[in-house]
Structures are given as structure tokens and as C-alpha cells.
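Example record

Each entry pairs one chain with its bound ligand, uridine-5'-diphosphate.
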Amino acid sequence: MARFKRILLKLSGESLMGEKQYGIDEKRLGEYAQQIKEIHDLGVQIGIVIGGGNFWRGRSSETIDRNKADQIGMLATVMNCIYVSEIFRSVGMKTAILTPFECGSFTKLFSKDRANKYFEHGMVVFFAGGTGHPYFSTDTALVLRAVEMEADIILSGKSIDGVYDSDPAVNPDAKKYDEIDINEVINQRLGVIDLAAAVLCMENHMPMYVFGLNEENSIVNAMTGHFAGEIRLAYLYDNGSVSLVTGGSVNGSIIDAQHDLVFSEERYDSSAYSGPYAVLLKDVPVSGTV
Ligand code: UDP
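C-alpha cells for the complex follow.
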């Protein structure tokens, strides 16, 4: 029996680009589709939020009005969702796209009841268009929808390989965190998720599992805890507390019963490690990366 019945998965816009500099890499989307189908086939209800950064971000323009720039960003997320939804359909999944504003017949207007109906019909539900308001991000939309839809957990897929104190693309001395809690994310204004989203997570006790999307099979791995390779760490939410899972490959799952997992207080030095990692952001003093 799946431990988590309903998850909200975020795919950053950037991650859709694959090897490209802009737009969408269909090969990458195909890989995501297969992985998400695998998770869906386990009986998990999956909501998807996608960013727009592969096309446009509100702050991309220094010229036009911010409200309009953000509207373009929100429309970019709708384009992404339509595209990804079609790729998902091509591998046999049923999908629906909901937006917080009317997009004619392209999407349906978001309501919790409507989304629940789609979930009950076995559809993967895309929450496109962000919150519908400027000055927000898709991270905030992600947490908002997760709270509204009473998701068990958020899985936030990133294109960078960990949680840093500053952007490693900009600052070569950026420090990579081995553990961090949501309050620290807020207090230090860390960019792993934006501040409004982090506060919403904290206030509503919504767990968020952050993982890197670039490794093979990373979405399934994030859900199942099965990482290929040598040392892996994952902090998992376990009956209200968080434990460190260790092992060559974790024989268990964040969606299945936790009894198979090997829990340990042991810590590994992960500073030299650059493979798949997992971080859980929660309002308890934990989380880990490798
Ligand atoms: N956006 C917005 N309100 C929202 C969500 C998104 O105005 O509720 C706009 C904003 O301009 C943002 C863009 O849409 O820059 C794309 O979203 P985001 O930057 O979160 O995408 P990501 O970085 O995850 O690809």
C-alpha cells in the first residue's frame, strides 16, 4: 500500500530544457513521462506544477511593466503544461490541466472539487498558470496547491544538485548544505524555494522533498528511495520525526511502509559526493543532501 496517496511534483522550467539553452527537450520529457507513469501505476495521485523559466521569467525584462512580465511568465507555465501533458498522454496517462484564470477551451478553471474529480478519475492533474497573480512564483503556487489539495508531500525537482547558501552558478564558493531545516531556509533567505513558498510550507506543516532531476530515473528514485550506486543518504519523514536512512541502496520507499528502511544516526561525510541526493524540508531541524 502506498504510504503517500497524493503528491505534488514540481518540475522547474529549466529542467525541461535538457541539454538545450531554451524551450523544451522532448527526449527529457519522455524520460519524465515514463518515470511518472511508473509512480502513477503504483496508485499514487500525482499533481504537477511546472515553472516557466525555460521560456520566460517576470524579472527577465527591465523595460516592461512587472505585472505584464509576470503574466507572460504565467502563460509560459501554461505552455509548458500543455506540452508536458501531451507527452504524458503519448505514453498512456490520462491528464487534465487546471488554471486559476480562463484560457478558453485550452484548460479548465481551477477548483478543489474539480481537481479532486480528476484525481478520482485516475488523471495526472497539472496546476498551470501559477497562482494567477503577479509577484508570485510557481514555488508558491506549488505549496498553495499542495496545501489546498491536501497533498501528503511535495516533491520539488531541481536542475541543480543540492541546496546551497547562494547560487553556485554565480558564486563558485557557494556552500552546499548537508542538512537544513525550513526555518533556516527562511531566516537565511536561501534560494532553494522562494520565501513566500517556504513560509507557507512552514505554517501549514507541508513537507517538501527536494531532489536533483538531472540524474537518471531521479523522480522514481525520489519516490521509492532506491538510489543506484554507493553511499546515499535520505532523511525521511517517519511518524512525525525525521530519520537518516543509510545504505548502498535504500531498501524501502518514501511511499511504502517505512519498516524496510535502515534507520541510523550515523552520518557520512558527503562533501566529496556529487551523485543523486535527497533533502527533506520540514519544520523540524533536519534535511540532508549528498
Ligand atoms: N509567475 C507569476 N505568478 C505565479 C507564478 C509564476 O507571476 O504565481 C510568473 C513569474 O514571472 C515567474 C514566471 O511566471 O518568473 C515563471 O515561473 P517561475 O519563475 O516560478 O518558474 P521556474 O523558475 O520554476 O522555471
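DSSP finds seven helices and eleven strands in the chain.
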